[in-house]
Amino acid sequence: MDFAGIMHVITRMIEAVGVAVIVIGIAVAGIAYLKAPGSLDAYSKLRAGMGRAILLGLELMVAGDIINTVAVEPSLDSVLVLAVIVVIRTFLSLSLEVEISGRWPWQGVRSSQSLHRGKEKGDKTENAE
User: Fold this and answer.
1) How would you classify residue 107: left for phi > 0, otherwise alpha for psi between -120 and 50, otherwise beta?
2) Backbone φ and ψ of 102, nearest 5°
3) 30-50 pLDDT per residue, tens
4) Whose C-alpha in 32, 52, 66, 127 is 20 to 30 A from the C-alpha of 81?
5) CB distance 49 to 99 below 8 Å
6) What distance in Å separates the CA atoms of residue 87 and residue 77, rounded to the nearest whole number?
7) Residue 1 — pLDDT band, cuts 50, 70, 90?
């Protein structure tokens, strides 16, 4: 098998993992919702879990597309298709972040459901030196 063939198989495997992540993530979020449907924030946790699964799966699929474009089919057409895919993915990512956290990603205050969990300013868990 030549280099292009190997890279094609690798990209298909990465894309398959991306699809699996989406399917499994949605199933896990759905099962968690079904276990506690009466809780106050069960629906928001369901949406957040589904959004995270979709975003992670999209990241993997874009990675597969990038590898495919660079290693297998380095043509102007494939680069343009990749650019469109990345723009769509970026729009979806921003939309999902706003939908889940209720704010734009560049706004200062993070919600507890934010997709990008990290330390907030003034977090008391930081070690003092």
Assistant:
1) beta
2) 80, 20
3) 999 998 877 778 888 888 889
4) 52
5) no
6) 16
7) confident
**Token pair in block for residue 104:** 């734009």
At 68-117, the pLDDT tens digits run 888 777 788 888 888 888 888 788 878 877 777 777 777 766 555 544 44
Residue 19 neighbours by CB distance under 10 Å: 12
CA 36, CA 47: separation in Å to the nearest integer? 14
The residue type of 32 is A
